[in-house]
Write a structure and sequence with these properties.
Blueprint (H helix, E strand, L loop, with lengths): L6 H10 L5 E5 L6 H11 L4 E5 L9 H16 L4 E7 L7 H14 L3 E8 L2 H11 L4 E5 L5 H8 L3 H7 L12 H21 L8 H13 L3 E2 L2 H7 L6 H13 L3 E4 L6 H5 L4 E4 L2 H8 L3 H5 L2 H18 L1 H4 L2 E7 L2 E9 L2 E8 L8 H9 L3 E6 L5 H4 L10
Length: about 400
């Protein structure tokens, strides 16, 4: 693949700089982590050694030590002053972080210039391992879902294509067959993410309930739904506390979030009805879409997709740019997305034909005095401009 994501330059730069931190490349499944690393290694002039833990027995904790030692031997026999070791799907090995810490520290003490890059799909497993054993030893490079600009540059997608089909590069060749496209998203993307990256790596008491919550949440993207009502729609018995904890886990995996209502009081935010929001509009379409042709011509339906796309785009940079995303509603007044960064607030109203302009922005501005109150779409920032912007530009 000739197209290179923005993180390519960052990863290559860190590979060529002096050894200092472990570099961790993390993100959801099927966003191109392994492809990006292959592209970087193709241009890296240093000796490099690539291993993949996929298929290795998860209990074989000595596997990491063996490949590490094999790399050291090749460095010594080749008289290599420095080299790069890359381990893909590292989180699949039990206690991986303990072994990595031991071997990394051994190299540090012996002044061996072996640079380490770790790749992983499961945010939860990586998070736990990094916090438990590798604190202070690593830098995290996040690889998120593909933006419209990326899908356009790589595959020639229109903005409408991206709004409806989301940002999974593996689906690019399937747009002409909706049945096949949905099957691929659900079976090849969603199922492994839920079953391997979520259920097997967390204390999920009721896996069936987790799956049902995910399906329901995707179909309600950009909509408010109380967890009390959600319990009534799910077949497996559960309670609001359980659903809330499952929703937090899905957010950790960059799949589905339950946005809280913006308020000055933290307790009021926590008690609010969540607004479901997918991280990739492919998930909304897979569970709620009928066909592009039908959904595109219905202003009410298309407005829902556009609002969800704005939410996904804003949410996708939340961790990287250090802000929080909320919504706001008070009686009939509503603001689609509220962004909070270092005490400054930007309010966003999406206007695409789904509904007329409401009084949400003026009411919100009167209550909270945001830095900016912005309309995205009709009579505001055009969608093709907004989806090319960095969210931090809204605060400048």
């Amino acid at each position: 693949m000739k197209f290179k994501r923005l993180q390519f330059t960052e990863v290559l730069g860190r590979m060529n700089e002096p050894r200092h931190f472990i570099q961790v490349l993390a993100g959801p499944r099927q966003v191109g982590k392994s492809t990006l690393m292959d592209q970087v290694l193709a241009e890296c002039t240093l000796p490099h050694y690539l291993f993949n833990a996929d298929g290795v027995d998860e209990d074989d904790t000595d596997w990491i030590r063996r490949i590490w030692e094999a790399t050291r031997l090749q460095m010594d026999s080749g008289h290599q002053a420095e080299a790069v070791l890359v381990i893909d799907e590292i989180q699949k090995i039990k206690r991986w972080s303990e072994i990595v810490k031991r071997e990394w520290d051994n190299d540090t003490r012996s002044h061996r210039q072996l640079k380490l890059f770790l790749l992983g799909s499961s945010r939860l497993m990586l998070r736990d391992g990094l916090k438990e054993s590798l604190a202070g030893r690593f830098e995290l490079i996040r690889l998120g879902h593909w933006t419209w600009q990326e899908m356009s540059d790589a595959f020639g997608w229109t903005l409408d294509d991206w709004i409806y089909y989301g940002g999974f590069p593996g689906t690019a060749s399937l747009l002409g067959d909706m049945r096949r496209w949905k099957k691929y998203v659900k079976e090849s993307l969603v199922a492994p993410a839920i079953e391997k990256d979520v259920i097997l790596t967390s204390n999920i008491y009721k896996p069936a309930l987790m799956k049902q919550l995910f399906d329901l949440g995707c179909s309600y993207s950009a909509e408010l739904l109380s967890l009390t009502k959600a319990v009534g729609q799910l077949q497996d018995a559960g309670n609001v506390t359980t659903l809330s904890s499952y929703l937090d886990i899905l957010k950790e995996c960059n799949l589905l979030a339950g946005l809280q209502k913006y308020a000055n009081d933290e307790a009021r935010r926590y008690r609010s009805v969540p607004k479901f929001q997918v991280y990739n509009n492919a998930l909304l379409t897979a569970y709620k879409g009928t066909s592009f042709d039908k959904d595109r011509i219905d202003p009410q339906i298309w407005g829902r997709w556009v609002e969800s796309a704005v939410g996904a785009y804003v949410l996708g940079s939340e961790e990287e740019e250090g802000y929080k995303v909320y919504y706001w509603r008070e009686r009939d007044d509503e603001v689609d997305y509220v962004i909070l960064r270092q005490g400054e607030v930007v309010a966003l109203e999406v206007k695409s034909g789904r509904r007329g302009m409401n009084s949400g922005l003026p009411a919100f501005s009167e209550h909270f005095h945001p830095k900016r109150a912005i309309v995205i779409g009709t009579d505001g920032i055009p969608f093709d401009v907004f989806f090319r912007m960095r969210i931090e530009e809204l605060f400048s």
